[in-house]
Design a protein that fits this description.
This protein has 167 residues and is an alpha+beta fold. It is globular, with a radius of gyration of 19 Å. About 4% of the residues have low confidence.
């Protein structure tokens, strides 16, 4: 949307080879600001008493935009611990669920869930049987505030011969 950020900062970068880190970071931040603005616009029109909204993201932040960070439990980690690495900042990503059926909203959970758990969870929240043969397990007890995740580990793989087991 027009007016969200100063476009003159980005206009000097004509190709990927001439883009500076500062210009790239500015573009990334502008993209996040635009996404936040448009998500707010979309969510403001949803009836949360009848709709369950699930916001999930992919496997972490790209190393080209990740800065040295301090993780709440891991401490400081280098920017190389980004997307496509076996480190927690790459594998553990935000999952935000709000709306119909979520008990005690505005809280967080450290329960381990995986994207494959979304379909069984939605089925459980709807009161229907999940299709057979799914790898996922329902994390509805977290949403209903009646228990924790049944998952104790998850397998993460990114096109390498060996993946990574997260516990």
């Amino acid at each position: 949307p027009v007016g969200l950020y100063d476009s003159t900062t980005w206009s000097g970068a004509l190709t990927a080879t001439t883009t500076t880190d500062a210009q790239y970071m500015h573009c990334e931040r502008a993209g996040v600001e635009a996404l936040d603005t448009e998500l707010n616009r979309l969510l403001s029109g949803i009836d949360f008493t009848t709709t369950l909204v699930i916001l999930d993201c992919d496997n972490g932040t790209d190393s080209s935009v990740l800065q040295h960070e301090t993780h709440p439990t891991l401490g400081a980690y280098p920017a190389s611990h980004a997307k496509n690495t076996p480190y927690e900042p790459a594998i553990c990503v935000p999952l935000i669920i709000s709306g119909a059926g979520v008990v005690s909203p505005n809280r967080s959970s450290s329960g381990l869930v995986s994207c494959v758990d979304i379909v069984p969870t939605v089925c459980a929240m709807l009161g229907i049987t999940a299709p057979t043969g799914l790898d996922g397990v329902s994390f509805a007890p977290i949403l209903l505030n009646t228990g924790s995740s049944a998952r104790t580990e998850a397998y993460s793989e990114w096109g390498q011969p060996l993946g990574c087991l997260v516990k």
